[in-house]
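Hi support team,

I'm opening this ticket because the web form for multi-chain structure prediction keeps timing out on my end. I have pasted the exact lines I submitted so you can reproduce it. The total is 670 residues across two entries, so I didn't expect it to be a heavy job. Is there a limit I'm missing, or should I split the entries? Thanks in advance, R.K.
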Amino acid sequence: VSETDEKRETLGEISEAEILSRVFPRLPVSAHELLGPGDDAAVISAPDGRYVVTTDMMVEGPDFRTDWSSPFQIGYKAAAINLADVAAMGAVPTALVVALGAPAHAGVSDLEQIADGLRAACDELAPGCGVVGGDLSSAPALVLSITAHGDLESREPLTRSGARAGDIVAVAGELGAAGLGLDLLFARGIEAHAEFATVLDAQLQPRPHIGLGRVAARSAATAAMDVSDGLALDATRMARASEVRIDLSSELLSAFVGALRDAAPGISASDDELLDYVLYSGESHALLVCFSPQASIPAGFAPIGVVTGLTGDEPGVFLDGAPLDARGWHPFQTG
Amino acid sequence: VSETDEKRETLGEISEAEILSRVFPRLPVSAHELLGPGDDAAVISAPDGRYVVTTDMMVEGPDFRTDWSSPFQIGYKAAAINLADVAAMGAVPTALVVALGAPAHAGVSDLEQIADGLRAACDELAPGCGVVGGDLSSAPALVLSITAHGDLESREPLTRSGARAGDIVAVAGELGAAGLGLDLLFARGIEAHAEFATVLDAQLQPRPHIGLGRVAARSAATAAMDVSDGLALDATRMARASEVRIDLSSELLSAFVGALRDAAPGISASDDELLDYVLYSGESHALLVCFSPQASIPAGFAPIGVVTGLTGDEPGVFLDGAPLDARGWHPFQTG
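Hello R.K., no limit was hit. The queue was backed up. Here is the completed structure from your submission:
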């Protein structure tokens, strides 16, 4: 997409077999693959007789821009956001299938770099997970649709509905950086990377703590979810599914405000403005977990509040006792 | 997409939660679902400790046109082509995940009808299979990316590489009708449906014989694949993977030529032209199976040739002893 090399090869110029022979060797291999690419379907092991499955599609335009994201980053992020959903079930990611739509004029090297991004994400975030199959389609814009699978290792899945009064609410990962990075990209373009690399990277190449999903499941977690549409909205979904109140503490959240300020030194924003990013901005892909009060919170998780029972009121999220708006991200609205 | 009702609601006008509440009740339910939609991932049973997985993306423009296909047909076909890949492994389809990209101006009723098509395909072709999860994205054109899963019921998977000299080559389903239907659509538009309903329906709403995948696997099948890119090309892939020759007989294939003529009565095409459709046109989604010579060919399969060992020559496909071109469909070439 970004190359100017006059020898740049496009997808329309070479055979499908050649495209696949260039891309396949770069893809990560799954340790759970019993039968890999080359047939109509792959065969994957499910040691405990179940598997976890989730899907997320990324579309050029609404979900990424090729003037901001490299093909490597697009592949990395597409894998990472799917891995985060598997981790949120307390599962260990095992296998991805990847459907890719691209215009005929897209470069073969772009596909190679997307494959490199998929591999880097699996290697760094979820070793043992790999790409077991895929599909290549012609499309007017780049579309990357990934389905991720995971192994529960004989544990019960973590859900949104398991939170109970008395639980500790904790988060692993960043809150607000990906959203702040997106606003900086809209305001100043990719040039903002020179000054705000950390928050732009949080947006362009998120690195969720995939391994902590299994850690949480082994540590008396009662509920978990991936924070993708903003903490306030996602915690509200968890509160409703569990029929509880989630009471957040601004004192505890101040650690995330401080981390956000450290990640964007020199940013001209008040603490209240940064707290807004922490609470409402999307694509953090932090892991939101409720732990039973008897549990010791594992390393990597920071407490942000407690779960409270309903006493006649509606399920919802509160900050220092005041109800929080469940506003957040919607796929068909802009801004 | 096709509605003119002035009350037509679009995806951009209502909340994501409302869209999902309208679409979800219409989706087919999987009998293998242990935990369904509502969490970050679903949990599916894999009774024999393995599962089959495949993915196929359909994109508006290259893969379908909304002036030819109804939303119902788009959903039906997207499910059917994925189910066909599961069946080709000798597996029983269990669960689909569906990622859908659509413009904000798309109608909510279009999504409802896509869901109806997904349900009809599962109910008619693969009872017990259902949609266990999904993702809804904003996209410049309609994109439907499905991942399908299947259960091998403790059998070994059927692959492309198992064909052995002496095997009978057989097909279940139609050959050529979907390709002929596409050419009629390009030549005469959807108006051709009045005269050529059967072949247009083969293109717009294919009904592959999903249940025959399991039947083949139980009947001493040695190799199988879904015919999606044309018989000649796909059989060549099987011959290469198995390192054999596949010898097709025009006398046996004449049954498919006759069926094609019956499906398009009054078509002005010679038998040779129809044989070209049988051999080379794509999207048939017939099931190509090799059976061991000891097997009795199950009902629903028609023999089309035999597998021959290599005697110094290259693997490939022959018709009445003459080598066949492995030409067929390529995703980034037109025509």
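A quick check on our side: The CA atoms of residues 69 and 204 of chain A lie 6 Å apart. Let us know if the file doesn't open in your viewer.
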